[in-house]
Amino acid sequence: MSDDRKDKDMKVININDVLGKKADALATDVVNLNEKRKKEMLDILEHMREKIEAGEILEFTATSLDNDGDCQIHCYVGDVAVGVGLFEIGKNILINQYAPGQE
Fold first, then answer.
1. Of 54, 88, 100, 103, which is most buried by a Cβ count within 10 Å?
2. pLDDT of 1 above 50
3. In 32-46, which positions are buried (b, 16+ CB within 10 angstroms) versus exposed (e)?
């Protein structure tokens, strides 16, 4: 299933696909991957900031995972019901539109 409204296809990066690499090459790959991840996360936040400034995003929910493995939810919503609804809708979109192995 795909959504024709998407600007781009979602890119999935498997950080576990490192079989057969030497330790030095692997360490370099991990550093490069971390820098790429940071850039891509900041690109998403910048995109959201632009949409908020343009008045296109009125409320939002987002989740994150920190270095200690703790999950957090970040939201700006009118009430808890809206926050839960947005979170559930986002979860449904992720499960249905970006399934592993989807072309």
1. 88
2. no
3. eeeeeeeeeeeeeee
Rounded to whole angstroms, the Cα distance separating 102 from 89 reads 20
Task: Render pLDDT for 73-94 as a digit per residue (tens, 0 to 9).
Answer: 999 999 999 999 999 999 998 8
**Domain spans of the chain, in order of start:** 14-57, 58-103
The distance of Cα 73 from the centroid of its chain, to the nearest Å, equals: 13
pLDDT tens-place string over residues 21-40: 555 666 667 678 888 889 99
Q: Is 83 helix (H, G, I), strand (E, B) or coil?
A: helix
User: What is d(CA 78, CA 84) in angstroms, rounded to the nearest whole number?
Assistant: 11
